[in-house]
Amino acid sequence: MLFNSLAFAVFLPVVFAVYWSLQKTPLRYQNLFLLLASYVFYGWWDVRFLLLLFVSSLCDYLVGMFMTGTASHRRKRSLLIVSLAVNLALLGFFKYCNFFIESASTLLRDLGLGHGTRTLRIILPVGISFYTFQTLSYTIDVYRGKVRPTRDFISFFSFVSFFPQLVAGPVERAKNLLPQFYVRRTFDPRRASDGMRQMLWGLIKKMVVADNVGTLVDYVFANPGDMGWQCLLIGGALFSVQIYCDFSGYTDIAIGSARLFGFDLMTNFAYPYFSRNLAEFWSRWNISISSWFREYVYIPLGGSRVGPVRHAVNLVLTFTISGLWHGAYWTFLLWGFLHGLFYVLTMVTGHTRRYEGPVAPGRVLPSLREALCILLTLIPVVLTAVIFRTRTMRDAAAFMQGLLILRSGTWPGIGFFLQGLTFTGVLFLVEWLQRRRAHGLEISRLPRALRWAVYYALITVLILFGSFTEHAFIYFQF
User: Fold this and answer.
1) Is residue 306 situated within a structural domain?
2) Domain count within the chain
3) What is the pTM of this model?
């Protein structure tokens, strides 16, 4: 079920009404209803996917229980291996099986040892990467002693399948979200109002900006070898806009929806395109996944507690694995590898300062130095995003070559891109002004009349310019 669909527009208020009508019943009934609603939400795509979600949840629930009943470190480690094996096997089969078959077949064909490629008809379950990482974090933290295992299977299954963040995050840690299922929630009109504002802002990002810009991006990337450099430059930049608005728009709707039910989800995007270096960018972009890889991959590899060469290897390896997490394409691996190299370069040159607050504090405009830092940070982000968007190394090379040699080619004129560029400019202007706020529509401090004027204006923009063809969110494919 898509957040930008009519089905969800009916689903959400019905679930909201029934959920809060159960407030005076035992808490487990409210949690059970959320669990059932989440399964309806997920099964809306394909009811067969529910079995995988159930298996992952059951496996890690039982692993946590068995860890409780043993003091043997060796047995706990064996149980953790079971959890990793089951979850990663499911993820690997559905997400990477055909990738490895095709890669092996291509290699054999190049060596003259094979002729054709036979792949399996595997449907990628929506959101499998997200809920797999979420439930794995539970068993790993139980093993490490950071989280107490739960015996409440309704709460645990609800934690894994919580519908607002089930299919595209944020990937929550058990220590943050699971305890919220143990306590009774009370309806708070102010939190609910802010949640609805954040949902509206997320819909604007997705339906007005991302979907409209996406049409332009598809045109440019359809055949990059024929495009002029102007087209490639604008198209590449607009894809960075599209993926940000699409993914952060989903996150805004997820966080806002959760707040309607009395839950707090972690911030997943914190105005990343206003970052002053790559270290700050990765502390603001897809925070839940970035921190997951840091905690469960980078630090176990040794992190920064090793020599400089090993430290650099750990960084590159972690980024490369994060690229593979996105999907079974060599371009994803290259994207992650390049980000690792760029991060090492910033580390070597000493440009990894950790900034505590937003850029240009207390000022309307950034300083020249701050603006230059933002621009230099965006250059590798946009260039690697181009590789991320292409599906073959050949297309990626054609795109980059056209940019570097300033190739002449298809150029429909600036008017073709004008609407998308206008939407982009307005959105980032609002976000710049709101960069100290939790989200772009946090305007509770404004007078009531002005707030409602903003709401009506945004709803009008959504109706007039929003795409109502139910475009899936980009990160659903991951």
Assistant:
1) no
2) 2
3) 0.92
Instruction: Assess if residue 330 is contained within a domain.
Output: no
Active site (catalytic) residues = 326
Residue 305 located in a structural domain: no
HEC readout, the chain: CCCCCHHHHHHHHHHHHHHHHCCCCCHHHHHHHHHHHHHHHHHCCCCCHHHHHHHHHHHHHHHHHHHHCCCCHHHHHHHHHHHHHHHHHHHHHHHHHHHHHHHHHHHHHHCCCCCCCCCCCCCCCCCHHHHHHHHHHHHHHHHHCCCCCCCCHHHHHHHHHCHHHCCCCCCCCHHHHHHHHCCCCCCCHHHHHHHHHHHHHHHHHHHHHHHHHHHHHHHHHCCHHHECHHHHHHHHHHHHHHHHHHHHHHHHHHHHHHHHCCCCCCCCCCCHHHCCCHHHHHHHCCHHHHHHHHHHHHCCCCCCCCCHHHHHHHHHHHHHHHHHHHCCCHHHHHHHHHHHHHHHHHHHCCCCCCCCCCCCCCCCCCCHHHHHHHHHHHHHHHHHHHHHHCCCHHHHHHHHHHHHCCCCCECCCHHHHHHHHHHHHHHHHHHHHCCCCCCCCCCCCCCHHHHHHHHHHHHHHHHHHCCCCCCCCHHHHC
Mean pLDDT of 306-331: 92
**pLDDT tens readout for residues 269-310:** 999 999 999 999 999 999 999 999 999 999 999 998 999 999
For residues 38 and 120, state if they share a domain: yes
Which residues span the domain enclosing 467? 190-276+355-477
Summarize the confidence of residues 446-472 as an average pLDDT: 90
The pLDDT value given to residue 354: 82
Tell whether 173 and 249 lie within a shared domain: no
Asked whether residue 204 is domain-assigned, the answer is yes
